[in-house]
Amino acid sequence: MRKYDSIIEVQNDLRSGVLNLPQLVRYYVSNINAKPQLNAFLEVWEEEAIKRAEEIQNRFNKGEAGKLAGMIIGLKDNICFKDHAVSASSKILEGFKSIYNSTVVDRLLAEDAILLGRLNCDEFAMGSSNENSAFGAVKNPLDESKVPGGSSGGSAAAVAGDLCLAALGSDTGGSIRQPASLTGIVGLKPTYGRISRYGLIAYASSFDQIGPMTRSVYDSALLLEVMAGGDEFDSTASHNAVPEYSKLLETKGKKKIAYIKDCLESPGLNPEVKQRIYQLIDQLKAEGHSVDPVDFPHLDHLVPTYYVLTTAEASSNLARFDGIHYGYRSKDAAGIDNTYKKSRTEGFGKEVKRRIMLGTFVLSSGYYDAYYGKAQQVRRVIHDKTMKVLEEYDFILTPTSTNEAFALGENTKDPIAMYLEDIFTVQANLAGVPAISLPLGRKQSGLPFGIQLMGRKFEEQELLAFSQKMMNQEV
Amino acid sequence: MSTVYDKYELVVGLEVHMQLMTKSKAYSGDANEYGNLPNTNVSAISLGHPGTLPRVNSKSVECAIKLALACGMDIHKYVFFARKNYFYADLPKGYQITQDKTPICTGGQIKIKTEDNSDKWITITRAHLEEDAGKSMHDQDPFDTLIDLNRAGVPLIEVVSEPEIRSSKEAYNYLTELRKLVRYLEICDGNMEEGSMRCDANISVRIKGETAFGTRCEVKNMNSIRNVQRAIEYEMKRQIDVIEAGGTIQQETRSFDAANGTTFSLRSKELAHDYRYFPEPDLQPLLISQKQIEDLKAQMPALPQELHDKYVSQFGLSEYDAMVLTNEKEIALWYEELIKHTKNYKSACNWINGPIKAYLNENALHIDDFTASPEQIASAIALVDDGKISASAAAEKILPELVKHTSKNALQIAEELDLIQSSNEDEIIGLAKEILEAWPDKVANYKNGNKGMMGLFMGELMKKSGGKANPKMATAIFQDLLK
Q1: Annotated domain spans of chain A
Q2: Active-site annotation holds for A151
Q3: Across the A/B interface, how many CB contacts are shorter than 8 Å?
Q4: Where are the domains of chain B?
Q5: Is B87 an interface residue toward A (CB < 8 Å)?
Q6: Catalytic pick from A87, A90, A151, A315?
Q7: Among A369, B93, B162, B427, which one is most buried in terms of CB atoms within 10 A?
Q8: Which of A98, A201, A364 lies at the smallest CB-CB distance from B276?
């Protein structure tokens, strides 16, 4: 069977009859089974997916199917699907099944998407390499000695490896975009509040966003329009109208694009990546867009601010995993305090514990003002400065990652080096703006890297349309 | 005789948690109902399952606004929530959603009576919204603690007073007033036994005349207003005894033991939790509009203090009568209905505080179950005022009939029972003469100055007339005949 890169191709073949949906599900299942070493899927809901494929195929034949008929999706293992296991790739949720649907799952199912299984990730979405999973590392399908990035590494590997057509990821500081960059796919982090977080296992509530990971901008736009919109179960979800992004992918006129010079001159940036960015800048200028360098004097503060605030929120969000109510409880726990200590010590992985400790520290009385309070203020400054740039410019252009995918084990010894992987991506989460990683870079090694565009809040339509243009023009 | 205790002054501030009577919980749509089977008022949200998010129940915000309006508190336009982090088995999220630096209301006052019955205003520091925890039950199973999460997420308002309370009686009166107020506002049922109203007392002592506060202890677990009073009395003595013995008070949390009226230490300050409060990132700040406040103001019921003042200053009732009438909202409302039909405010008050309450008590009824209507009672008041029946006949004979026959008025019943007082002078003179002739010795007695004999003559007359003789007229006739 041919490889499909967009639901448009799938639906065309469904229409012409050369493809039927159960066939497509079986194709992905066989791909998954053929490459178990990728370790992308933690669980495949094969039987259920095929049954649903048959039903949707029937509806499709009658012209009654939803707009996602043909979209075969993997869910990051931190998104709740009723009566299905969900573990955030952590031992602490051992044996846990969700008793409700996340809002995104409800909306995807209502449009006839097929949910194929759940995808490995960094434990509680904490990581940049997908090596922090209780179920083992995920491998990059483009080079199995390399990481796929993280935390949505399973999602990226599944989409890049043709194990499903699309996947959902979640992005707290780059967890959709950085793995998209390292696996050569499209990863969109929408505006904070564009998609309901209800049913997403929280890492850092004021940063987390669910987003699509796809092989085309069109699929990203289509999934966004289905999932976005107000939700009575998430009071941080915006009620702004949701455009039909997938029908509005044509960009008009000349754009003003900013790039942050210090960003491109940072010593950590790989020269090939840097060269590619400048090449793109020249190309955009040649097309008549204005592309200007802007000052952004807070680059050094991005990652520390991000880690103070996200670990603080995480320390509270992860308190509910206590060994009492559900999930893992230590076998030899006795008494309440002992149950907490043993269950959490055994149930959480090292990186998660590190972040809980950090977050607990920065919120502690006596340290709150110096860390959490200060970081809140810095976040406000970063937000305001980003807004100011985006008042004048339509987009901010940056690399998504400093380099191509790194080797498994390369950064695991040094958490700081790993945290600096987030340097280009955290700004969008700190400011709450939408950002997309586009597979527009390829190194001599043959491995891809992504180019990131940040846009104005709730202007995903412009961002996607311009992304489509950039993808179409790629030579 | 003065004792060592008289050297000291008591300083008390109270923190009162009240469960709000909303249909659903503070941050979810789960039912807020007391007494259901364990773990039935729960969804994924109350259970604190991963991925769930809170949403604010606007009704609990309304409750806070009503209380603020009643106590003259400032209502803050932007409502921010915060997380209070601590581990406990009945706290499924591992944190409580509350308000920290930005409570919904600040300031305001509650008027109470002091020890010597004078008025005193107690300042309220703040009132904030939060959620209740579940219940851990340690006595249901021999091996395990069982957890019921029905209560988890029930909306609470916590009202914190300034440390302006100076006696256990003032504390008692403050809680009584606050409870009365929330019952009038219908935001909390104020039931301390069932835990829908809970009080923690911050208690310290100092030498009279000192301006600095002593070290305080927080006392918890008092399940009645009376027990708050007892706990404060015990704690005051205990603290003075420690100081007098040369010791110092340690800041700590103590628990009240109702069985023997004492307090015991739960945990010291060093072991106090660090709750790591921070802004709740899952809830957007809520905006309270001036219109919302005005709308609620327009719907505010009459409050006990207002009614009390009206009854005393406009109706001329005694402080005591006014207090008894306003203690319970339903009684006050019944009185308010009654005085729509009669202008005899005093008599209306006497009817409620007298025969009606007696009837309710005898039959173990609440005023809401009282079948006679205010119009009916007003008709009885009018009949007495017109001299058609005696007050005692109205209370003893008419009232039971009014309750049974809610379509009849007092006059109809009085006529049916033949209770209309006779004002037929000839008839009364005839009977009076018969009585005086039958008791010449008593008449002599009267004439010798024993005016008490009149009661005897009147009693006899009432007996002979079947209680229908107009007593005023009869007295005048006797006086005339005995001249």
Answers
A1: 7-247
A2: yes
A3: 104
A4: 4-292, 302-416, 425-481
A5: yes
A6: A151
A7: B93
A8: A364
Amino acid type, B10: L
Q: Is A76 a catalytic residue?
A: yes
Q: Token match 């999934």: residue? A: A223
Give B29→chain A minimum CA distance, Å: 10
Q: Does B92 reach chain A within 8 Å, measured CB to CB?
A: yes
The per-residue pLDDT for range A170-198, each reduced to its tens digit, is: 999 999 999 999 999 999 999 999 999 99
Please tell me the distance in Å from A358's CA to the nearest CA on chain B: 13
Mutation pick from B30, B45, B46, B53 vs chain A, by most beta carbons of A within 10 Å, is: B53
pLDDT surpasses 70 at B263: yes
Instruction: Reply yes or no on whether the pLDDT at A475 is more than 50.
Output: no
- Strands of the sheet containing B82-85, edge to edge, are B95-98, B82-85, B278-279
Q: What is the pLDDT of residues B189-215, one digit of tens each?
A: 999 999 999 999 999 999 999 999 999
Which phi and psi (to 5°) does residue B81 adopt? Answer: -110, 160
Whole-complex ipTM: 0.96
CA distance B395 to chain A (A): 58
Residues of B in contact with A93 (CB under 8 A): 50
Could you give the dihedral angle defined by the CA atoms of residues B461, B466, B468 and B469, in that order, rounded to the nearest 10 degrees?
Answer: -10
Nearest to A100 among B44, B95, B283 (CB): B44
Q: What amino acid occupies position A164?
A: C
Can you tell me the distance from the alpha carbon of B352 to that of B334, in angstroms, rounded to the nearest whole number?
9
Backbone angles phi, psi at A425, to 5 degrees: -95, -30
Rounded Cα–Cα distance for residues A273 and A270 (Å): 5
Among candidate residues A36, A457, A469, the one with its CA nearest the CA of residue A228: A457
CATH fold, domain B425-481, is Arc Repressor Mutant, subunit A (1.10.10)
Contact A183, A146 (CB under 8 A): no
Q: How far apart are CA A174 and CA A177, in angstroms?
A: 5
Mutate to test the interface with A, among B86, B137, B138, B278 (most CBs of A within 10 A): B278
pLDDT tens per residue across span B396-440: 888 888 889 888 888 888 888 877 776 677 788 888 888 888 888
Whole-model pTM? 0.90
Q: What are the Cα distances from residue B260, in Å, to A112, A314, B230, B257, B459?
A: 67, 45, 10, 6, 54
pLDDT tens string A43-77 = 999 999 999 999 999 999 999 999 999 999 999 99
CA distance B54 to A236: 10
Closest CA–CA distance from residue B278 to any residue of chain A (Å): 7
Q: What are phi and psi of A189, to 5 degrees?
A: -105, 110
**d(C-alpha A153, C-alpha A131), whole Å:** 9
Tell me which chain B residue has its CA closest to the CA of residue A312.
Answer: B278
B94–A202: do the CB atoms touch at under 8 Å?
A: no
pLDDT at position B423 is 66
